[in-house]
TrEMBL record:
Entry protein name: Putative redox protein
Highest taxon of the lineage: Bacteria
Gene3D superfamilies recorded: 3.30.300.20
Originating species: Inhella inkyongensis
InterPro entries linked: KH_dom-like_a/b, OsmC/Ohr_fam, OsmC/Ohrsf
Any single Pfam family the record assigns to this protein: OsmC
């Protein structure tokens, strides 16, 4: 139950299943990869929006919590993305605006997942040393 995906950009990603499903737990599950992709897509938007506004972003972490339906197909029903941004003098209102723009307009992944799941966001801003 291990798989190697080759992307259009020429990169490879390993995936595996849980041991009770025939996998060996050597790589992320395919459904985990969906969440990783959504977090990466949204983080990219948030950082780009802030950088274009000349904000000093030094780090962005996205913590994702999700719930899935109990029956097949076990789609995501709730997804929460919590952004932790680190920078110098980052304006909390600018961060909130960037997160909202990504969530509502730019992030194709979260917009798509929002067709089956309630997607919510939160954020915090940390001052860098």
């Amino acid at each position: 139950m291990s798989f190697l995906a080759s992307t259009g950009s020429g990169h490879c990603v390993s995936m595996d299943g849980a041991p009770d499903g025939g996998g060996r737990n050597l790589a992320p599950r395919p459904m985990e990869m969906l969440l990783v992709g959504a977090g990466g897509c949204s983080a990219y938007d948030v950082v780009l929006i802030l950088q274009r506004g000349r904000h000093k972003v030094l780090g962005c972490e996205v913590q994702i919590k999700a719930e899935r339906a109990a029956t097949d197909p076990k789609v995501f029903t709730q997804i929460h993305l919590h952004f932790v941004l680190r920078g110098r003098g980052l304006n909390a209102d600018a961060v909130a605006r960037a997160v909202a723009l990504s969530h509502e307009k730019y992030c194709s992944a979260t917009v798509m997942l929002g067709r089956t799941a309630e997607v919510t966001t939160s954020h915090e801003v940390l001052e860098a040393d």
